[in-house]
Design goal:
By secondary structure, this protein is mainly beta. The chain contains one helix and 18 strands. The strands form five sheets. Strands 4-8-7-6-5 form a five-stranded mixed sheet, with no helix packed on it. Strands 11-12-13-14 form a four-stranded antiparallel sheet, with no helix packed on it. A four-stranded antiparallel sheet has the order 15-16-17-18, with no helix packed on it.
Length: 236
């Protein structure tokens, strides 16, 4: 499938009291450009193509209040529906531009990882409140954004100690992605790793979210399904 995408300049409709919005235009299989339709009533200030694999498109949509939501397209890339609210997104001239991350990143990015070797599995970072690691949560989908769920932390650490971190107690596992790597450049935080040649195996750096598990950084290994993590080694 061919999905060349382009943006038109911000435009304001005559007689409208809403701020200017940008419009995403899509061409499917080299056909004439058509305006993409997003199921939202909020003005849109920016689009970011987060992923265009598996015959669908994930697009980060930034609204006037700097809230960014993740939308997924139909197979022609023309109609988009909401998949995940408040996804972590950075733009040098928009979302997150007033944070320290602006000193380390000069291009936009979203904390969204496609798990290679398995269709429909993605890991994203959810932001709840101000942009700080205390407010970040990793979520995973197994059906290309139809449903998302938090990650269960390991039941034990690499030394055999019990880890008391349960989802029903408000504790979950957070995996470092692009934002955490850039913001904590002095720490050895590797990105989420997955390969087509090793389907079902995921390596990542993570820590706990919640009042039961300290944010100690660990190298984690996950087998399919990737909700349940193992802790093969603890970083110094």
């Amino acid at each position: 499938m061919s999905l060349p995408l382009s943006l038109c300049p911000p435009q304001k409709l005559f007689g409208s009291h809403n701020p200017s919005s940008v419009q995403l235009w899509v061409s499917y299989n080299r056909q004439p450009m058509k305006a993409a339709q997003f199921m939202t009533r909020h003005p849109i200030t920016e689009y970011y193509i987060a992923d265009a694999s598996e015959d669908q498109v994930f697009v980060c949509v930034n609204h006037i209040n700097n809230a960014t939501h993740l939308y997924i397209s139909d197979t022609q890339g023309l109609s988009f529906s909401l998949s995940l609210e408040n996804v972590l997104y950075y733009s040098p001239e928009g979302s997150g531009s007033n944070t320290l991350i602006r000193y380390f990143a000069n291009e936009p990015f979203a904390d969204l990882h496609r798990v290679e070797g398995l269709r429909g599995i993605f890991i994203a970072t959810l932001i709840n409140g101000s942009v700080s690691e205390d407010n970040m949560r990793s979520v995973i989908t197994f059906d290309k954004g139809g449903t998302w769920e938090l990650l269960q932390a390991p039941a034990a650490d690499s030394l055999g100690g019990t880890v008391d971190c349960q989802l029903n107690k408000g504790c979950s596992l957070h995996l470092a992605q692009r934002w955490s790597q850039l913001f904590n450049i002095q720490l050895r935080r590797m990105p989420i790793l997955s390969k087509d040649s090793a389907p079902g195996l995921i390596m990542a750096t993570g820590g706990g979210v919640g009042n039961k598990l300290p944010r100690q950084q660990k190298t984690l290994q996950a087998d399919t399904p990737a909700v349940h993590e193992k802790d093969p080694a603890t970083l110094p």
